């Protein structure tokens, strides 16, 4: 309310100034106006241009006050967003006064915004200044690679996207150099980052690869369960017991009907786009 009253008083003061200046300008024009002696102007001479009075310009302080008023009247969540975006984009520490100068958000004058900043997990407050706080404190590409290597089971990319401004470029560089694997179904910033251990980079002879492919796996569940028991693993199923129960009840086990497998077409939604060798036989 106090800001609206100040703004209304300022507008009234501007209107009074405009009226006073207009009356002064009209009085000076009537006093200092010289007597004009009529002259004969040639027929073919061009007409003299008429000078127009320039309007009196005032400062843009009114627009600034209106903007401050709109920010102060906006929802508390919108004001909090302005502050967090300022901290995120600049990555500098700001006092409450500096935040007010940059965003017109009165931190100390709005208790909800003040309490929200204190409890926001993305904001760090040292007692005087506010700064942005990411989940992982990283300073560059070397720190980023060291962090990813600590997660052999994968690290979600979304957890490190706000670590520092150029983190996306560093992730792309690490992926291009082969230091990390970035598995994602799309080209978005989502996905999982895996470290590419240099010790795992080994080559195998074609004979060994062919021997591995020629190993025939058992097709019957009884054989599969038997092989699992040989290596000390307990099967999750008991096929023999299930078949015996089915025979006692007199209902022979019905073989599951195999559904006709549809080929992969251009309309098929691919979820393993990082494995292009799976789609070499894509039907167009």
Present the secondary structure layout:
Blueprint: H1 2-31, H2 61-73, H3 76-90, H4 96-103, H5 111-119, E1 123-125, E2 130-132, H6 141-149, E3 155-156, H7 167-177, E4 180-183, E5 192-195, H8 206-213, H9 221-230, H10 239-248
Antiparallel strand pairs: 1-2, 3-5, 4-5
Helix pairs in contact: 1-2, 3-5
> Which spans have pLDDT < 50 for at least 5 consecutive residues?
none
What is the number of helices?
Answer: 10
Order of helices and strands: HHHHHEEHEHEEHHH
The rounded distance between the terminal residues' Cα atoms is 68 Å
Question: What overall form do the CA principal axes indicate?
Answer: elongated
Structural class: mainly alpha
How many strand units? 5
Strand order of the largest sheet: 3-5-4
**Share of helical residues:** 40-55%
How does the major sheet shape up? 3 strands, antiparallel
Instruction: Give the overall average pLDDT.
Output: 78
Gyration radius, rounded: 39 Å
**How much strand?**
5-15%
Please tell me about this protein's structure:
- The chain is mainly alpha-helical.
- 43% of the residues lie in helices and 6% in strands.
- It has 10 helices and 5 strands.
- The chain has helices at residues 2-31, 61-73, 76-90, 96-103, 111-119, 141-149, 167-177, 206-213, 221-230, 239-248, and strands at residues 123-125, 130-132, 155-156, 180-183, 192-195.
- Strand 1 (123-125) and strand 2 (130-132) form a beta hairpin.
- The longest helix is centred in the N-terminal third of the chain and has 30 residues, at 2-31.
- The chain is elongated and about 115 Å long.
- The mean pLDDT is 78.
């Amino acid at each position: 309310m106090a800001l609206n009253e100040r703004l209304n008083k300022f507008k009234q003061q501007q209107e009074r100034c405009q009226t006073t200046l207009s009356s002064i300008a009209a009085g000076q024009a009537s006093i200092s106006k010289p007597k004009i002696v009529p002259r004969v102007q040639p027929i073919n001479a061009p007409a003299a241009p008429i000078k127009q009075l320039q309007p009196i310009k005032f400062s843009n302080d009114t627009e600034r006050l209106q903007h401050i008023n709109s920010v102060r009247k906006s929802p508390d969540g919108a004001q909090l967003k302005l502050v967090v975006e300022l901290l995120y984009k600049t990555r500098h520490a700001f006092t409450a006064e500096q935040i007010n100068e940059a965003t017109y958000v009165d931190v100390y004058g709005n208790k909800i915004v003040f309490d929200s900043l204190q409890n926001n997990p993305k904001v760090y407050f040292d007692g005087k200044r506010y700064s942005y706080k990411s989940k992982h404190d990283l300073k560059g590409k070397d720190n980023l690679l060291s962090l990813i290597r600590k997660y052999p089971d994968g690290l979600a990319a979304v957890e490190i996207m706000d670590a520092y401004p150029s983190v996306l470029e560093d992730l792309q560089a690490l992926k291009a150099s082969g230091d990390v694997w970035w598995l994602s179904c799309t080209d978005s910033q989502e996905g999982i980052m895996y470290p590419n251990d240099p010790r795992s980079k080994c080559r195998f002879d074609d004979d060994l690869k062919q021997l591995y492919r020629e190993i025939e796996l058992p097709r019957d569940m009884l054989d599969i369960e038997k092989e699992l028991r040989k290596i000390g693993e307990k099967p999750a199923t008991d096929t023999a017991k299930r078949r015996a129960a089915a025979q006692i009840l007199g209902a022979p086990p019905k073989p599951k009907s195999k559904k006709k497998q549809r080929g992969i077409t251009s309309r098929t939604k691919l979820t393993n786009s990082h494995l292009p060798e799976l789609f070499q036989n894509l039907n167009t």
